[in-house]
Amino acid sequence: MRKIVILTGAGISAESGIETFRAEDGLWAQHRVEDVATPEGFMRDPELVVNFYNARRAQAAEVTPNAAHRALAQLEAEHDGEVVVITQNVDDLHERGGTQTLYHMHGHLKGALCASCDHRWPAPMVMAAGDACPSCNAPAARPDIVWFGEMPYDMDVLVGHIAQADIFVAIGTSGNVYPAAGFVAEARHAGAHTIEFNLEPSAVGNQFAEHRIGPASQTVTEWVA
Ligand code: BJW
User: Fold this and answer.
1) How many Å lie between the centroid of ligand 1 and the Cα of residue 178?
2) ∠ CA(177), CA(179), CA(181), 5° rounding?
3) What average pLDDT score do residues 209-214 get?
4) Which of 68, 95, 102, 149 is the most buried (most CB within 10 A)?
5) Strand-strand pairing, 141-145 and 107-114
């Protein structure tokens, strides 16, 4: 009963119509990372950041899971052993595609977080800068997103899953952002077979034992079949 741990990134949602970050016309070509994806950027201009995530939330609500999301749910349903999906994505396409065991290590567009007391609650479709926290009442609502310099969620649990993996798979992630980019090294250290699914080898591509090159909707579906 082999345990499969799967890390996904923006590339798995690209064919659903959500831009990736580091493509030539991706999100970081349109917005300065320092402005929209750091706590310092949020302190400088909360309205800019909240509007950036309002637009992303609206876009995510309009798209649907693609064949790669559905294939992972099928794998989980049919595999004789544990399947764990760790996503860096903040959309809900894995959930809507049917995946059950899922970790959002970089947070979620559907969440709001109090910058003052850390209380979490469901985000409205349109957040406003200065919205009050329902728990402490501070005007400190922010998107529940892990920005640069912040600790990704559930790290202890994720590291435990990776240490037990028999197969570690990364799908549609550029391998530029840590700690996620370091998971392949941890999985290899634990003795897992490692497979990368991408349009091209990632920044940590040389650490994978096997590569499946091409659009995830095809390569992941073929792998699961
Ligand atoms: C397809 C496809 C198709 C396209 N089919 N494939 C120096 C060295 C090492 C680390 C650091 C350092 N300086 C600073 C750091 C730490 C920093 C970091 O990594 N910085 C780097 C830039 C160097 N990391 C952090 O700050 C993290 N926190 C942290 O480290 O805490 C301390 C800690 C210590 C010890 C243990 C644990 C923690 C936090 C990182 C937060 C990242 N946040 C973001 C934005 C918020 C979310 C959002 O707004 O959506 O998360 S950044 C952005 O990048 C987003 C993504 O989740 C993340 C990864 O991007 P992803 O998914 O890989 O997308 P792309 O666009 O880069 O790649 C897409 C890929 O898909 C490409 O390869 C395409 O080819 C492929 N593709 N179509 C298959 N159809």
Assistant:
1) 6
2) 55
3) 98
4) 68
5) antiparallel
Which ligand 1 atom sits nearest the alpha carbon of residue 90? 50
Contact 196, 6 (CB under 8 A): no
- Cut 0.95: pTM above it: yes
Helices 67-78 and 216-224: crossing angle in degrees, nearest 10, is 20
Active site positions, annotated: 106
In short, whether 13's Cβ falls inside 6 Å of ligand 1 is no
ipTM for this model: 0.95
How far apart CA 6 and CA 219 sit, in angstroms, is: 14
Structural domains for the chain: 1-18+65-106+153-225 (3.40.50.1220), 21-62+110-145 (3.30.1600.10)
Q: Is the CB of 200 under 6 A from ligand 1?
A: yes
d(CA 103, CA 87): 6
Q: What is the mean pLDDT of residues 193-209?
A: 98
